[in-house]
Amino acid sequence: MAVKHETELYAPLKVFFEERGYEIKSEVRHCDLVGYRPESDEPLIVEMKKSFNLPLLLQGLERQKLSSEVYLAVERARAKKGAHNQRWSEITNLCRRLGLGFITITQYKTKKPFVEIHCMPGDHLPAPSQRIVKARAARLQYEFNERSGDYNVGGSHGTKLMTAYREKALRIAMVLQEGGEMAPKDIKLLSGIGQTAGILQKNYYLWFHRVSRGRYVLTSEGEHGLKQYGHIIEAWRNAAPSVEE
Fold first, then answer.
1. At the top level of its lineage, which domain of life is listed (predicted)?
2. Nearest to 100 by CA among 48, 54, 50, 61
3. Which pTM value belongs to this model?
């Protein structure tokens, strides 16, 4: 059951922490929820929002000036699976890196709310291993180096990007369009693409058709791809060095 106002999250949180020995009060010096245990002078602080967002995160960082026991709390709406602000494992990892606690509250129609702590304030998340970082950096550099130019617009979403793989497939398609039925070794020689055989076999874009063993032709999808990226092909041809007679 989705909440309409973030104030609906307060009562379950108040009960949750009171059961753990805190005295809880709301809206103390602009903090949504503040609690103290009898044996401690350091406050518990919880900032609440209906969903996880940047203002909530910034609030949490600001509250760390008052206490090391700061939680961020949001609703866990069961009807919003896959929403960008409910990627719980990623949000939890982010909070851990910043030393913040993270809580979700699931509301139900017929039973009491469920309060779940995903991480505690001060939980330590080790940095990714150097091996993983190096592998990702190598893939990034490879993709950068394999592209012949800058054919995309930064910040694009929902558009087909010109990747190094697509560039290679286009160059193979160009050769097939001009040569007709051909063998991979000949296509490789004319296109200069070392992975020609693998690209033909994988046929990710459905641009190629194997008519017989070791013989390929361009499909109608391939013809469409050449037209779709005709401006890039034209840029390649214009950039090619001219041969003086």
1. Bacteria
2. 61
3. 0.64
